[in-house]
Specification:
alpha+beta, three-stranded antiparallel sheet
Length: 475
């Protein structure tokens, strides 16, 4: 009898565990994990590069409903979409879900970047970045952005009959980053930064297989080089600030080094500065360059919108003395231009979607999302929803005349709520200054009538958007 009782006590916990697992598996979202480890990663990446990613997700929704499970980049994942999903992602308590990204992003940008942190660490690092990126601080950098844009156009546009927009915009945004974030002048060092930076971002969304022939491996090696170069800059900036009395506002690195707590200790560690400088590099480089490129394409196809922007920007140009920089007050007058930018972001969001990681078992939409799983959301699913934006395929900047009329958590190119991108204002200034000079100095037409684009993971128009350009008489 004792033997049977002992056997019963031994088997009971196993039986209860199996029952619990059975119940949990029944409440998991529908869907398949696909091929072990790889899952649907390659299928999604191929769809993004073929410009069919939205259709790929729509087919999942038709098959499984608004919440489904799959495996992406090595981890079990739940895909959710819609206004409620966006709100859930951007407002959930940091004890429930963390910012933790897919392994490829985490390994390339570092585990102390804002994308990875939660709770007090997230607030501390975010507050430090905002001290540089908030509007009151950025006012003083408008003139430097203006100078970089003018120099870029003189070197790469003036005297040309044909240019390819996307690579030139990436050059421009990287030059602005080097100037404002690093205080790094043009030259061999900046050129070396560009080389490794491009290799680094190529593998941010990739299957994390670290073999010599993979994109992921090349990105990891480039990331290590960029990290070392940023560390060198940090050491130089620390000497300039602590020993030579350099201004704390001369660039982002110096600003982050200058932030101290009540005991006069540096608020951010060196790794936190490195990882977050790299994050801002990526965000500032790709978001603005893609946005400006697609504005150029849309204006070529929408002459009425083009004329409206031109009229607004020429009024500002007429008010400036020869050689005078754009000011913060001028930016405030570019209301229509920014509405065009917002509508461009709605139709072609640079960030396709994002990931979060659950820190505990979560119930969402009547299903269980287990601890440690990824949550995947896609911004275009609400941006192109006809029940939210009437006739969503139509380019209509008037949608944003009253932005308060757009339902919350439906337009999310920069995130939302407490998770909204701290670089939003930086991107706005960069875009408006660039568009002012492009539209007042040049006219253009498309050399390619193919309106398709691929994602890698940012949207890339066909052939990088080659255009024919003509100088416009300066006002």
């Amino acid at each position: 009898m004792n033997i049977f009782f002992a056997l019963f006590l031994f088997l009971l916990p196993i039986f209860l565990l199996l029952v619990r697992r059975g119940r949990s598996s029944q409440s998991l979202p529908p869907g398949s994990f696909g091929i072990p480890f790889i899952g649907q990663s390659l299928s999604l990446l191929w769809a993004m590069r073929a410009n069919t990613a939205e259709r790929w997700l729509e087919e999942r929704v038709k098959k499984y409903g608004p919440i489904s499970k799959l495996r992406l980049f090595g981890k079990p994942t739940v895909f959710i979409f819609g206004q409620a999903a966006n709100k859930f992602v951007f407002t959930s308590d940091s004890s429930m879900i963390s910012n933790q990204q897919v392994q490829s992003v985490r390994m390339i940008l570092g585990d102390r970047s804002l994308l990875e942190l939660s709770g007090e660490d997230h607030k501390r690092v975010r507050d430090s970045l905002v001290s540089f990126l908030k509007p009151e601080s950025l006012k003083q950098y408008v003139g430097r952005m203006d100078g970089e844009v003018r120099k870029h156009l003189e070197m790469n546009w003036e005297g040309k009959q044909k240019v390819t927009v996307l690579p030139l915009m990436k050059t421009l945004t990287f030059d602005i980053i080097c100037s404002l974030l690093f205080g790094l002048e043009r030259g061999a060092r900046r050129d070396e930064f560009v080389k490794y930076f491009q290799e680094m971002i190529d593998g941010m969304w990739s299957v994390p297989v670290n073999l010599p022939f993979t994109r992921y491996n090349r990105s990891l090696r480039a990331s290590a080089m960029v990290g070392e170069m940023v560390k060198d800059l940090i050491r130089e900036k620390r000497v300039e600030f602590e020993q030579k009395g350099a201004s704390s506002h001369q660039d982002l690195i110096t600003c982050l080094l200058s932030i101290r707590d009540k005991d006069n200790k540096q608020v951010l560690s060196e790794n936190e500065i490195v990882h977050n400088v790299m994050l801002v590099m990526v965000a500032g480089h790709d978001t603005s360059s893609v946005l400006i490129t697609f504005i150029v394409r849309l204006l070529a196809n929408n002459p009425t919108v083009y004329e409206n922007i031109l009229r607004e920007q020429e009024e500002i140009a007429k008010s400036k003395a020869s050689g005078e920089f754009i000011t913060w007050e001028d930016l405030a007058k570019m209301k229509y231009t920014w509405r065009v930018a917002m509508e461009t972001l709605r139709m072609f969001p640079p960030i396709f979607g994002g990931f979060r990681t659950t820190l505990k078992d979560i119930e969402y939409g009547g299903y269980l999302i287990p601890k440690g799983w990824q949550i995947f959301w896609a911004s275009s699913m609400t941006h192109m929803d006809g029940s939210i934006f009437q006739d969503p395929a139509k380019f209509d900047p008037a949608r944003f005349e009253n932005q308060a009329s757009v339902p919350p958590y439906c337009f999310v190119p920069f995130g939302g709520g407490p998770r909204i991108c701290p670089g939003y204002e930086f991107a706005r200034i960069e875009t408006l200054v660039t568009m002012h000079y492009l539209i007042t100095r040049f006219t253009w037409k498309l050399c390619c009538n193919d309106d398709s684009f691929s994602r890698d993971p940012m949207p890339v128009p066909t052939q990088g958007l080659p255009i024919q350009i003509w100088p416009r008489k300066l006002v």
